[in-house]
Each structure stands twice: as C-alpha cells, then as structure tokens.
C-alpha cells in the first residue's frame, strides 16, 4: 500500500470514528493497567462491568494484597482466565510496591516486566496513561491491518505493529490505534464485515475478494477465532 493509500485509510477512519478512544473505564494509570490485564481474551464491555465494583473495593496496590487470592478470584470470576489473572494482579501489585513505590512505571521496558503485562498492554498504558505514541495490536487492529493489505496474513502481531509504525506518522500512532479498533469492532467485524457499505472497499484486498469484485488481489481473508 502506498503512502497515498495509507493517508486515505487514516482519513477515512478519522471521519468514521472521530471520537475513537480507549473504552476501558479507568481514572488513573494503575486502574488502566489492571483493566487492560483483565481484557485479554475478554471484551471491554465485560471488563467494565466487573471493574465498576472492583475499583470501588480496591483503590491501591495494598488493597489487592490485603485479601486472600480466592476472594480476588471471586471478584473477577466473570472474566475469562480469572484465576490466572488474579494471581498476576497480586504479583503485579507486589512488584510495583517493591520497585516503584506503588506506582505504575512509565517506561515500556519496565511495564513489560510486570506480571500479566505483555507488549500490547504496555503499549496501551504508555499511550493512554502517559501520552507516549504507541500502536497496540489487538485482534481488531490485526484483523483490519491484514484485510486492508497493510500486513501479510502470516505476519505475527509484532510484525504487524512494526509495519503500522513504519506506515503511520508517529504523531498519529495513538489515535490511529483507537480508530483501527473502532473500525474493526463496529464496522469491519470478524464474522460480518460491512463490506457493501465500506468506504475503503476499493483499496481493500479482502473486501474485494469477499464481494467478488474484479481485479481483487489473491489475499486470504483473515478470520480470527476470538475478539477482545
């Protein structure tokens, strides 16, 4: 895809979703980190339902460590993989109390060392909590990128991230990340993408193939098995 086409993609998504933003409810970097950790293989909607009461009960790292693991598990049991996530939350709280005076570190390399925090989570935190340009590749960003031909079907999540960082101006990384998510969550869905009314159809290899339009490139449509 040329830089002109990339500009068209960015401008089109901006017009479609001008208010795209992080949909995980939070009021500080610590709550955001917990929310993103919980969101792995789980919808933001479900996470937000759980954190309403969770963030009322647990205000700081010490609070999560003041209860038995079994109690924390029960508080997040509606979340997928809740047992493993409960363990990671308590381990994360121990680490930030020991190493960072109870605060979430601002550097990416420090964040990825926290239990339960991978590259995607770290990117979301530095971008939304600390204003550092970043592109977090979740299932929506990956799907949209591959369907639009911005990345190959065989690319790993890290390869998709690197390609997007190269193609998208750095000062637009964070906004583009949110717009790709909204585009994938509400328009270019996993099972029923709205190709017939998509303004990007003419530049979308997967969309052309799905709609059986002429001159479509031979690009296998990406069909993920789960969404966040």
UniProtKB/TrEMBL annotation:
HAMAP family from the xrefs?
Nth
Q: Which reaction does it catalyse?
A: 2'-deoxyribonucleotide-(2'-deoxyribose 5'-phosphate)-2'-deoxyribonucleotide-DNA = a 3'-end 2'-deoxyribonucleotide-(2,3-dehydro-2,3-deoxyribose 5'-phosphate)-DNA + a 5'-end 5'-phospho-2'-deoxyribonucleoside-DNA + H(+)
Q: Which Gene3D superfamilies match?
A: Helix-hairpin-Helix base-excision DNA repair enzymes (C-terminal), Hypothetical protein, domain 2
Asked whether the UniProt record includes DNA-binding among its keywords, one would answer yes
Location of region: Disordered? 209-228
Q: Where is the HhH-GPD domain?
A: 38-186
Needed cofactors, names only, are: [4Fe-4S] cluster
The GO terms this record gives for MF are: 4 iron, 4 sulfur cluster binding; class I DNA-(apurinic or apyrimidinic site) endonuclease activity; DNA binding; DNA N-glycosylase activity; metal ion binding
Stated family: Belongs to the Nth/MutY family.
Task: Print the keywords alphabetically.
Answer: 4Fe-4S, DNA damage, DNA repair, DNA-binding, Endonuclease, Glycosidase, Hydrolase, Iron, Iron-sulfur, Lyase, Metal-binding, Nuclease
What is the originating organism of this protein? Paenibacillus aurantius
Basic residues: which segments have biased composition?
Answer: 209-220
What does the function comment of this entry state? DNA repair enzyme that has both DNA N-glycosylase activity and AP-lyase activity. The DNA N-glycosylase activity releases various damaged pyrimidines from DNA by cleaving the N-glycosidic bond, leaving an AP (apurinic/apyrimidinic) site. The AP-lyase activity cleaves the phosphodiester bond 3' to the AP site by a beta-elimination, leaving a 3'-terminal unsaturated sugar and a product with a terminal 5'-phosphate.
Protein name as annotated: Endonuclease III
Residues bound to [4Fe-4S] cluster: 188, 195, 198, 204
Q: What is its EC number?
A: 4.2.99.18
GO biological process terms held by the UniProt record: base-excision repair, AP site formation
């Amino acid at each position: 895809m040329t830089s002109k086409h990339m500009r068209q993609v960015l401008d089109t998504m901006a017009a479609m979703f001008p208010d795209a933003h992080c949909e995980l409810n939070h009021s500080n970097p610590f709550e955001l980190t917990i929310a993103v950790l919980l969101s792995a293989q789980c919808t933001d909607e479900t996470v937000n339902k759980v954190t309403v009461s969770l963030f009322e009960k647990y205000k700081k790292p010490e609070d999560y460590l003041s209860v038995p693991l079994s109690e924390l598990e029960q508080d997040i049991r509606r979340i997928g993989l809740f047992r493993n996530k409960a363990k990671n939350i308590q381990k994360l709280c121990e680490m930030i109390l020991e190493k960072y005076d109870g605060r979430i570190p601002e550097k990416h390399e420090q964040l990825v060392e926290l239990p339960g925090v991978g590259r995607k989570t770290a990117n979301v935190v530095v971008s939304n909590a600390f204003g550092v340009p970043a592109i977090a590749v979740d299932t929506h960003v990956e799907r949209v990128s591959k369907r639009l031909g911005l990345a190959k079907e065989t690319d790993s999540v890290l390869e998709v991230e690197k390609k997007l960082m190269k193609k998208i101006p750095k000062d637009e990384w964070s906004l583009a990340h949110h717009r790709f998510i909204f585009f994938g969550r509400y328009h270019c869905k996993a099972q029923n993408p709205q190709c017939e009314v998509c303004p990007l159809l003419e530049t979308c290899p997967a969309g052309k193939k799905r709609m059986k339009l002429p001159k479509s490139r031979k690009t296998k449509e990406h069909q993920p098995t789960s969404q966040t």
